[in-house]
Each structure stands twice: as C-alpha cells, then as structure tokens.
C-alpha cells in the first residue's frame, strides 16, 4: 500500500501518524492525568479528602461529552480536524489556567453544605466547579479522540501513545509533588502542553504563520509566568490551620509536601497538649496543659508534638485520662498512640508495672 506523501511537515488525515503527532498525543495524555491529579491534591487540601472525588466525576463528564459529540458529529469534526488539532493544545493551556483561577475564587464551604439553612446555596458552588473545570477535560477528550479518528489505520500505535502518556503524566506529577509547593503545582504541569502547542501549529495548518507562532509562544510564556508568580489556592477560613497560621508570632517549624499530604508543624500560643482537661484547672490549683508543636496535614490538626518534657504534671489531676489510674496502682499499660510523646511521660507518673507504647 502506498503511503501518502507528507510534504512540508503537514499531516494528512489518511496518512499514518508521524512521530511528531504521536509525541503531541503522548504529552497531551500526560497533561490530562497530571492535571487531574493536581486538582485532586488541591481539593484534598482546601476542602477535604472526601471532596477530592469530585474531580473523578468532572473528568468523566468532560471526557464522555467529548466522545458523544465526536460520535454524533463525526463528519463535522472530520472536516475540521486539522484546524482543531492545531489550536486545541493552546486552548488547553488557557482553559487549565482559567479553570484553576476560577476554582480558587469559588466560595464553596463544606460546613455550610451540612447546615439545614445554608446547604441550598452551596449546590450552586458545587455546580460551578463542574462548569469551571469541564472545559479542560472536554478539550483534552476532543484532541485525543480526534487522533483516534484521524489515524484509525494505526489504532494500536495511537492507543499505545495514549496509555504511555497517561502513565508518564501520573509518574511526573507524583514526582513534582515532592519538589513543588501544592499551590504552585500547576506551574509544573502546564509545560507538558508547551511542546504540543507549538508543534501543532507547525504540522497541521495548511499555511504556517510566523505571527501566529510568535503570539502563541508569548501566550505560553505569559501563562507560565502567571502560574509561577500567582499561587493557585490557599487555606480557607474553615480549615483548622487557618486560625493557627494567623496567630500573632506564629512560627512555621517545618513544612513538607509529598503525594501523602501537605504537612505543617506550627509553634504558637494556641498549641497545647491535646488532652481532655477540665476548664477549671486554675480554681483547682493545678497547672495548665503544656505547650506543644501542632502538626497539620492538609490543613487539619492531626497531633501535638512534645517539644520538651514538661516541668509540671499537675494538670493530670484534672484530666479525664487519669481516672483509670486512680482505680488501680502500678497497672500494666498498653498505649495505642502516644499523642506526640506526651502519653508516655504522663503514664510514667503513675509508676506502671509495665508500659508498652504502640504508635500507629
């Protein structure tokens, strides 16, 4: 079978995919998974892990919508496939940037959603998330779907590039989570589209315009500058860490981000041993709970760390946890969780016969 000539670097609809076309498909597929994962981390940090599952449904709606339209209007897309493949990667950059900006302006409050009076207003904010992000996945679905249609004669190679690109995007974004702050993660994901955005303007249009290319490059540079200079997101006021970060003289002892979570260790006047203690400890003549360093994961307090051994353990007389030790002297104790080390020191004040501490 004779393969049609591909002069001038232009793609023919009936020609087998060139290496450039496959590279574009690979990188767009990588961006699709990387952007989805980026959004999952963003929702986990700002709203909560349970709301990160919203992204899955948003992706499915966008991809499904693109597939339905490609099937219903196959001839329409076939006649315009070169024009669409030329500009879709560039449009994806703009849609991704706009989508991230818009969701950071969304006033959705999970606590208000649980309230019998305010929950209705939050449904519109939930719908807004879909409207703000579906365009990204719809455009990506159109680009990938058009590649399957345009190069249906080499479906195996096209599908392989799609799968390998998705796998590469997943690995890339997981690696980026170790080195880029989660609120700047988009700056590391957007460059996956830069090569397809430039190459698509070269290989697909019938006429190559230097002015169009220059404008596209400037637009890509501006998009990356915005992603680097402008943090997409921040802790909302209903997150526990928000109040702690805004306490006067608060000190961030340590900050760590990874795929497992965004961790902050804070030292301020509001961080104490998280023990159930009576509010009347002053009238009882006992000391207050000792100061601690607060550990937060994705904006939620998870444990208080003992920075140093307390000098005064009299606060235990007003703690609920002290009651079992009043019933039995020199008990054998097993601790499940040490509360940052505090529980070991506290139990030792009751002279246990044996102490075993397990830290989950």
Features:
360 residues; alpha+beta; 2 domains; 4-stranded antiparallel beta sheet; two-stranded parallel sheet; 13 helices; 6 strands; 10% strand; elongated
Kindly summarize this structure in a few lines.
The chain is of the alpha+beta class and 360 residues long.
The gyration radius over C-alpha positions equals: 28 Å
Shape type: elongated
Portion of residues within helices: 40-55%
Q: What class, by secondary structure content? A: alpha+beta
| Major sheet strand order | 1-2-3-4
Describe this structure in words.
With 360 residues, this protein is α+β, with helices and mostly antiparallel strands. It has two domains: 7-229; 240-326, no CATH class. Helix content is 53%, strand content 10%. A four-stranded antiparallel sheet has the order 1-2-3-4. It has a two-stranded parallel sheet with strand order 5-6. The N and C termini lie far apart (65 Å). Mean pLDDT is 86; it is low at 1-13.
Which helices and strands appear, and what pairs or packs with what?
Layout: H1 19-46, H2 54-72, H3 74-79, H4 81-104, H5 110-113, H6 119-150, H7 155-179, H8 185-189, H9 194-203, H10 210-229, H11 240-245, E1 251-258, E2 261-267, E3 293-297, E4 300-305, H12 323-327, E5 332-336, H13 342-348, E6 354-358
Parallel strand pairs: 5-6
Antiparallel strand pairs: 1-2, 2-3, 3-4
Helix pairs in contact: 1-2, 1-6, 1-7, 1-9, 2-6, 4-6, 4-9, 4-10, 9-10
